[in-house]
Design a protein that fits this description.
Blueprint (H helix, E strand, L loop, with lengths): L2 H28 L14 E2 L3 E2 L5 E7 L1 E23 L5 E6 L6 E2 L4 E5 L2 H29 L5 H26 L2 E3 L4 E3 L9 E2 L6 E16 L11 E6 L2 E18 L4 E8 L11 E18 L4 E3 L2 E8 L2 E13 L2 E6 L6 E5 L10 E4 L16 E3 L5 E3 L2
Parallel strand pairs: 3-21
Antiparallel strand pairs: 1-2, 3-20, 4-11, 4-15, 5-7, 5-10, 6-9, 7-8, 9-11, 11-14, 12-13, 12-15, 13-14, 15-19, 16-17, 17-18, 18-19, 22-23
Helix pairs in contact: 2-3
């Protein structure tokens, strides 16, 4: 027998052997009791039981509670000085003295800056000399007029010259007074941009002066809340620069003009700053109390499921998830006030909402707990045997 024929014979024998093995296996399976019948709990269809029940979705849930909440509005704003100016000279001159230290507190009326008064002093002396001469001429004119040695017109001219000299003297003294700049109010001085010997013109920026106790807080609220805002209402502010601290204040003024661009109204409040730790320009979060304390339905913010412009929560009713639309009021400290949609004692899902849809069976666990398994002996489950192996439970 040549080699190709031998190879063909071997291939045929292998195929015949494989077919015989398959036939014998099938025959053995068919001979087993219950072969071809569906087994209970072993497939999606149980004999005589119909479709198997869907598995419950494990979620975390929490009971809705009532809490006492003050009615508030939240906004963001900025701190402003109670009074703020930039010191500028009214007359040109050379700086002869600086009377403050940068960043220090100054009192009202303290001298901040002096300009060289030499020219002004000379003008004052000249004006006073002219005033003295004018007064002497006027006194002589009065005596002569009484004796009728001069006309009434000459006396009037002498009186007018006296008044002109008086005005010139007052003007010279006023100009000299402008050579000394004083603080118009108490506050903290800023950083100067000039030095002794600098020549400054009228209106040159010298230094800023800020009164920061108390401070003002400017913030905006939508125009729909305008009727809820009144002068004297209490508020509190928090700042990123001082985490964990809040500062109390009160509304002092409401701008009568509503911003047409943002449809908002600007409100100004005042807060104390005795230790001067707060500074103008800081970013502030404002909570304005608009009403008294009242009982409110409150849920954790993580229970809210946004969809478009609406907010929903999933309630647990008879072991199933029930989606409910809610109206949300104020939010604070990780909690949300619910105005409508749920009531006290309802149970709402706080974690696992993404796996839910309306009507799905749910299995509730406490927040942070691991999902529980079915008790030993449950249908279709296994329980540990004494020797450590698992045995099916009937």
């Amino acid at each position: 027998m040549n080699k190709p024929v031998a190879v063909a014979v071997i291939v045929v024998l292998v195929v015949v052997a494989a077919g015989s093995g398959y036939w014998m296996g099938q025959h053995k399976i068919a001979s087993l009791p219950g072969a071809g019948q569906p087994q209970g709990g072993g497939g999606p269809m149980a004999a005589g039981n119909g479709p198997a029940a869907p598995m419950a979705v494990t979620v975390e849930a929490q009971k809705v509670v009532l809490e006492s909440l003050p009615q508030t509005l939240t906004a963001v704003g900025s701190l402003r000085s109670d009074e703020s100016i930039t010191v500028r000279p009214e007359a040109a001159g050379r700086i002869s003295a600086i009377g403050f230290k940068e960043g220090q507190r100054v009192g009202k009326g303290e001298t901040l800056l002096k300009l060289d008064p030499a020219v002004n002093d000379a003008e004052v002396q000249q004006a006073r000399a002219n005033l003295t001469l004018a007064k002497s001429k006027f006194d002589r004119a009065v005596d002569l007029a009484k004796s009728n040695f001069i006309s009434g017109q000459a006396r009037d001219e002498a009186e007018n010259n006296l008044k002109v000299a008086q005005a010139a003297a007052a003007l010279a003294e006023a100009k000299r007074a402008k050579m000394e700049i004083k603080a118009p109010f108490s506050g903290i001085i800023g950083l100067r941009s000039v030095s002794v010997g600098d020549y400054v013109k009228e209106g040159t920026d010298i230094v800023n002066l800020e009164s920061i106790d108390p401070l003002k807080v400017d913030f905006r609220v939508p125009e729909v809340y305008l009727t809820q805002v009144r002068i004297g209402q209490p508020l509190s502010i928090t700042l990123d620069a001082f985490p964990g601290k809040s500062y109390e204040g009160r509304v002092m003024a409401v701008n009568p003009l509503v911003d047409a661009a943002g449809r908002a109204v600007v409100i100004r409040a005042q807060i104390r700053n005795a230790d001067t730790s707060l500074r103008p320009g800081m970013f502030a979060r404002v909570r304005l109390v608009t009403g008294g304390v009242q009982q409110a339905v409150v849920v954790p913010e993580q229970a809210l499921v946004p969809q478009g412009e609406d907010q929903f929560v999933f309630k647990v009713v008879d072991g199933k998830a029930q989606r409910s639309r809610v109206d949300v009021g104020q939010r604070r400290d990780g909690k949300a006030e619910i105005l409508d949609g749920i009531a006290a004692d309802d149970v709402v899902v706080t974690a696992g909402q993404l796996k839910l849809r309306d009507g799905v069976a749910v299995h509730v666990v406490e927040s942070g707990a691991a999902p529980t398994t079915a008790a030993a002996g449950g249908p279709g489950k296994t329980a540990p045997a004494k020797d450590g192996a698992t045995a099916p439970k009937s």
